[in-house]
Predict the 3D structure of the following.
Amino acid sequence: MDYVPTTKKDVDSMIKQIGVNSIQDLLVNFKPQLSKKLNLSDPLSEMELIDYMTGLSKKNKVLKYFAGGGSYNHYSPAVINHLISRGEFLTAYTPYQPEISQGLLQAIYEFQSYICLLTGMDIANASLYDGASALAEAALLSASHTNRNRIFVNEGLNPNYLQVLKTYCNGADLELTDKIDDKTACVIAQNPDFYGNIENLQNLSDKAHKENALFVTCVTELTSLAILRPPGYCGADIVVGEAQSLGIPLSFGGPYLGFAAVKKFLLKKLPGRIVGMTTDKNEKKGFVLTFQAREQHIRRERATSNITTNQALLALMATIYLATMGRSGLINVAKISYQRAHLLQKKLKEIGFEPLNKKPFYNEFLVQTSSSSESIISELLEHNILGGLDLEENRILVCCTEQNSIQDIEEYVSLVK
């Protein structure tokens, strides 16, 4: 791959076109103009600094979250931060040389295995950047496999995911369509959808496969798969989404953890990298990067994707979370989240909120208010409650997880009553 640096002639041509004399002229507005010295205190000792910072931290509001929409406030066990802080994991780089990264490769392998168990799929990759980019990669994969250029998106997809999908499709000459026909590369459905509805995946899968299109399921709340039927058992060819729910904090929206899993026939089209388990000449178990040849540094223009790395540290967090919670623990998280959400919806209905979900829902639901949704959200925020996502037309998207206690729900209802 050739690398051609920018020549002086190129630079001169560009700055002339912009209308400046030099590159430095472009930076003049970024230099702060300090008219006086900064108002800083005298130097503090370590103890004094800790006291000062502790005082500042007490000004933070500790919110009770009833908002979801793609980011979920699940509990993160203390063991996660303890283990990922070990130097072997925290400083490990992307394993291009697998023979020196056995521990990291094993952790990735375990993550892949857990994703396959949750989704009911054959193969999962080592993770992707986030749920939105994972979904867009699924569209590219589908187009490459089917040699078609139309993408059908079922209603209810997270609007942020839809925007990322549109950006990817624009660059790849793919078209979003409103019908399923013999030119459709894939049918995309989020489950549960952005409004919390649980979709009939088998019905959508049948419609896709009737036209020889791939069926893509997007899951943004992975804890739901502890009690819902896995997409792989409903005919999904590709399952992608967000794994932030698995022990990864909200973190102001990122970094998060995308995942992708496919049926076996799509193995060589799957973006990113895949860790496999094997044995060496002494019959000892070992881990290797089984597949990565589809990446652009090897296949170049024939590559399905340009992804060359993964979110290994966050994948490790999800792996530790699942290992810590176990089957029964994850089911309990899902059941409590489900029960709390349905309890809150019932109580809001009793005081005049109109439920808008016409299908079963997991831990998110949509309600219509008779007064300003903006004022309701603002009033709750005054009491340190993030009451949901304020959507248009006085609608609020409300979410519950295991971290929303019965007392929190009672307080929410009492305040909006």
About this structure: The mean pLDDT is 92.
